[in-house]
Amino acid sequence: LSVILKDPALIRNQQSQLCALLQIDEEVAKLLQLKAQLGGDEGKHQFVLKTAKGTRDYNPKQMAIREKVFSTIVSCFKRHGAETIDTPVFELKETLTGKYGEDSKLIYDLKDQGGELLSLRYDLTVPFARYLAMNKITNIKRYHIAKVYRRDNPAMTRGRYREFYQCDFDIAGQYDAMIPDAECLKIVYEILSELDLGDFRIKVNDRRILDGMFAVCGVPDEKFRTICSTVDKLDKMPWEEVRREMVEEKGLSEQAADQIGEYVSMQGGMDLAERLLQDQKLSQSKLACAGLADIKQLFSYLQLFQVTDKVVFDLSLARGLDYYTGIIYEAVLTQAGVAAACGEAQNGAGGEESVSVGSVAGGGRYDGLVGMFDPKGRKVPCVGVSIGIERIFSIMEQKAEASAEKIRTTQVQVMVASAQKNLLEERLKLITELWSAGIKAEVMYKKNPKLLSQLQHCEEAGIPLVAILGEQELKDGVVKLRVVASREEVDVSRAELISEIKRRTAEV
């Protein structure tokens, strides 16, 4: 060390080496910072291109099936005189809080965006009630088709998602008992019959019957809603597991659970309602008696609507949502019906997945919900139904895959084609005429496409007609109209072309 200190040259050498090391450290730090900004190799490997959990994309074929289903549902709603509304996709958090019972934990809360706590809508019913109260509307018959969001555990194969469409039909207003309720069930019957999903059952019950049943079975008042949520699981769990949850998790006595078990096993029609009105225990509850009287009235209207062959009075039906006050109902596809609709032997999903679709529609009466939003607590009686479009769509999609039927993804009626080169301008002139006349037409985006390529496109896309232009056709003032399916060709004058296309496509 004493030698180094006495030799200036060695000192300078050590200093330059130290500076070089510091420069290297600085450059390495810069490179690491740049790598972090650009996103290193590790980041690239970790990123997976996919849709978020519980969501999906829809290809053109799937959208064609979906649009057909929507069209069937909307035409039914309109046939029954409904008008439509729309509401925001998110609401104030307090609007949704306390309306869904134990399902409230499934609400998507949004990050605070400048002073308002917001949540994505969980269903379309609560926003509808808020809309009625806010606009002081006392009667309306409306339908609403829109997306809702639930932080659920998705089961994609069974049509259960975190983002999904709901198709709601509701009647708000003070009317005579059970007439609007019966029409809601008629609508479910019509939609499921028209969609041809297979055999189905519509289960009905009444919240007042459930509450009366809980009371006479010894359920404490404060446990009504939580026990109701457990009973609601009977369509997914066997009675033994439901009983265990009541007793072990909810603290209900075994005797009360066993008495509930006797009632929830009952199914029938108007005859069951009459029998329960005479039941020694249940007849003690005024609430239950009022519900049973309405069930009887409901079945008398359902007979007039000719739907009683599919409707069953089922005491196990609970529907877990807190806002129901009277009649509740749920439509389920029977196992045989789902299996037939899905073609379970062909879809590769296995029998279990094919028949585990769950309910495809549900609803009920909620007379107190609007009053929860009204400053003066004014009530607007409401009854409605929600069609489970995603589950229906899952079945329709499997059904389409199982059949050999080709699904068209466009509505093009005619392809404007050319048989020779240098006819792009003539094709564009003709297609402009067709579009102006309201005809759905398409042209290939090439100056000189081959005729075979144009014809092949028509066959693949299911376009029924081809309007072929050639030099001779232009001289003669005609268009060669070709029927793709039969390959029949006919010369049609330009003046008559539009009416001929309309005539021929009306027959397809």
Automatic annotation (TrEMBL):
UniProt keyword list: Aminoacyl-tRNA synthetase, ATP-binding, Ligase, Nucleotide-binding, Protein biosynthesis
Alphabetical list of HAMAP family matching this protein: His_tRNA_synth (MF_00127)
Gene Ontology, cellular component aspect: cytosol; mitochondrion
Top enzyme category: ligase
Taxonomic placement: Eukaryota, Metazoa, Chordata, Craniata, Vertebrata
Family note: Belongs to the class-II aminoacyl-tRNA synthetase family.
A GO molecular-function annotation: histidine-tRNA ligase activity
Record: residues binding L-histidine: D123, L124, T125, R150, Q166, D170, R319, Y323, Y324
Enzyme Commission code: 6.1.1.21
GO biological process: histidyl-tRNA aminoacylation; mitochondrial translation
Originating organism: Salarias fasciatus
InterPro entries: aa-tRNA-synth_II, aa-tRNA-synth_II/BPL/LPL, Anticodon-bd, Anticodon-bd_dom_sf, His-tRNA-ligase, HisRS-like_core, HisRS/HisZ, HisRS_anticodon
Entries under PANTHER family matching the protein: HISTIDINE--TRNA LIGASE (PTHR11476:SF7), HISTIDYL-TRNA SYNTHETASE (PTHR11476)
Domain spans labelled Aminoacyl-transfer RNA synthetases class-II family profile: 25-508
Protein name: histidine--tRNA ligase
Catalysed reaction equations from the record: tRNA(His) + L-histidine + ATP = L-histidyl-tRNA(His) + AMP + diphosphate + H(+)
Domain of life (superkingdom): Eukaryota
Residue ranges crossing the lipid bilayer per the database entry: none
